[in-house]
Design goal:
Elements (H helix, E strand, L loop, with lengths): L1 H23 L8 H7 L11 E4 L3 H6 L1 H4 L5 E5 L2 H8 L4 E5 L6 H4 L5 E5 L5 H9 L3 E7 L6 H6 L1 H8 L4 E4 L2 H9 L5 E3 L21 E7 L3 H12 L5 E6 L5 H15 L3 E3 L10 E3 L6 H5 L4 E4 L13 H4 L5 E3 L7 H5 L1 E2 L2 E2 L5 H5 L7 E2 L6 H13 L1
Parallel strand pairs: 1-2, 1-4, 2-3, 4-5, 5-6, 6-7, 8-9, 8-12, 9-11, 10-11, 12-13, 13-15
Antiparallel strand pairs: 14-16
Helix pairs in contact: 7-9, 11-12
């Protein structure tokens, strides 16, 4: 009875909260995802696929590349708008938003394999996929130090989720122990498959001075970084600011324009002038971070100088050996940080000193293999 009671509870919740979802759909961040997920607007089921891949957002979707590119007849479902854009880059793959769980009863079609990325533990997704004949996989699975106590409090629920997952591939031995404690079975350690994603440079920018990239920033990190850059690097380098969320571009533009006018600096948005020949540049176009990493002299990794975000993936920047400065709040990325040597971790109040150098190049370490995953999925697809 649990699947039906769980579904009924979620339907009741939707009945109470659908006006909130409707209002949120007018926000730029959710303009496409909420209508698609909660109201199935322009979000039909997959058709004629063998493998259903699912991930959450941009980083996870891009990291699936080594798996997605090995298979035909595939579909990719996502949660966020940035994830959707990343999924659309895969050729010959159908792309959808994952509907709100109760709607999966009518939306989800039978497939041969369901492959879910990291911590997307949607109960009805696994339950219905398995009930309809799919072999189910959780890949690159991880549970951070900070989130593990929360999972433990709801261990009774996660045991039901893992009862419907056939194979789990963990990032580390510690992740394996935690997953097994929550009820996961057939757990293997394959490492973090994000290490296999090769960054692709799509545009070559020229620079007239050393380039400092403030990457994936959140409020108020733009002000913190820009203020300390003015104190230490003004006139010596170019600062490129890349906000994590596109809906904040205008807000950050106002902040940076004010700083530039106050200090008499050259400033522009990349969408208005596609070059780096200024003191401060707001990168308000998606997909440019790799292009900037390729020529950066220093990366300041956002989401880590304020509590509550948990950091962002340093691996893409480290592929280019670029020095990285991070804040101390990277609890959601502890595993990926462990794969990179040379990251300078400082408190926000010490960033000014760190910007004065010297800056140490980074280096990727660690091992990963996806062959056990590929072989098992191939066997499922081949034998039905």
């Amino acid at each position: 009875m649990f699947p039906y009671l769980y579904t009924a509870l979620l339907v009741v919740a939707f009945g109470l909260l659908w006006p909130v979802a409707l209002l949120m759909s007018f926000l730029p961040k959710y303009r496409r995802s909420i209508p698609a997920r909660f109201f199935l607007y322009k979000n039909p089921p997959f058709e004629g696929i063998d493998i259903h891949f699912h991930s959450c957002s941009l980083g996870e979707t891009k990291a699936l590349a080594p798996l997605i590119e090995r298979f035909d007849r595939k579909g990719i479902s996502v949660i966020t708008q940035t994830g959707y854009e990343a999924a659309k880059a895969y050729k010959e793959a159908q792309v959808r938003y994952l509907p709100y769980e109760p709607w999966l009863w009518g939306w989800l079609r039978p497939v041969k394999a369901l492959v879910v990325m990291e911590a997307e533990l949607w109960y009805l997704l696994f339950f219905l996929a398995k009930k309809r004949g799919a072999a189910t996989f959780l890949v690159n699975a991880r549970i951070s130090d900070r989130s593990y106590p929360k999972y433990r409090r709801f261990a009774w629920f996660y045991k039901r989720v893992f009862a419907n997952i056939d194979h789990v591939y963990a990032q580390s031995e510690e992740d394996k122990k935690r997953l097994e404690a929550l009820g996961a079975k057939n757990v293997e350690v394959t490492g973090n498959i994000k290490l296999l994603s090769q960054p692709v440079v799509t545009k070559r920018y020229n620079k007239s001075r050393p380039l400092i990239v403030a990457a994936s920033t959140h409020d108020p990190e733009e002000e913190i970084v820009a203020t300390d850059w003015v104190m230490t690097q003004m006139g010596k380098s170019t600062l490129a600011v890349v906000p994590r969320h596109p809906e904040r571009f205008d807000e950050v533009d106002e902040l940076l324009r004010h700083i530039a006018e106050r200090e008499g600096l050259r400033y522009h948005r990349l969408s208005q002038k596609e070059d780096l020949h200024a003191d401060i540049v707001l990168v308000d176009q998606m997909g440019e971070l790799i292009n900037l990493y390729a020529i950066a002299d220093l990366v300041i990794l956002g989401g880590s100088f304020i509590d509550g975000i948990g950091g962002h993936n340093p691996i893409e920047a480290a592929y280019f050996g670029v020095p990285i400065i991070s804040g101390p709040h990277y609890h959601n990325q502890q595993q990926t940080y462990s794969y990179v040597e040379g990251i300078a971790v400082v408190e926000a109040n010490a960033l000014q000193e760190a910007l004065q150098g010297p800056w140490q190049p980074t280096k990727i370490t660690g091992r990963v293999t996806i062959e056990p995953i590929v072989e098992r999925i191939e066997n499922v697809v081949r034998n039905g």
